[in-house]
Design brief:
Blueprint (H helix, E strand, L loop, with lengths): L1 H5 L6 E3 L16 H10 L4 E3 H5 L4 H5 L10 H17 L9
Parallel strand pairs: 1-2
């Protein structure tokens, strides 16, 4: 993190779940709290697709995965949308119409 900050580079972490963390029901991975605590200590913002997707209908979330780990085209688009919103809200990318 020191090197990144010395370079004045903006960084954030994208947290994506495995399918089993969302389906058939929402579950928090055992390591998530400790990982997020560490990121908080370093003042690194997180884009948490796990939390966002936990509020979406099961049928929608099912389309995000092509297997238990890998995202489908729809899932990748959902991640891209989250990243775009994060970049705009953190003023790292000028807001524009997609």
């Amino acid at each position: 993190m020191t090197l990144v900050r010395d370079q004045q580079t903006h960084v954030f972490v994208l947290f994506t779940p495995n399918r089993a963390d969302l389906l058939p029901s929402y579950q928090v991975p055992a390591y998530k709290a400790e990982f997020f605590d560490r990121l908080s200590d370093w003042q690194v913002p997180v884009v948490d697709s796990h939390a966002v997707w936990s509020t979406e209908p099961t049928g929608t979330v099912e389309t995000y995965f092509r297997d238990i780990v890998h995202l489908s085209e729809t899932g990748n688009q959902a991640v891209a949308d989250l990243l775009y919103r994060q970049l705009c809200s953190s003023k790292q990318l000028p807001a524009s119409m997609p």
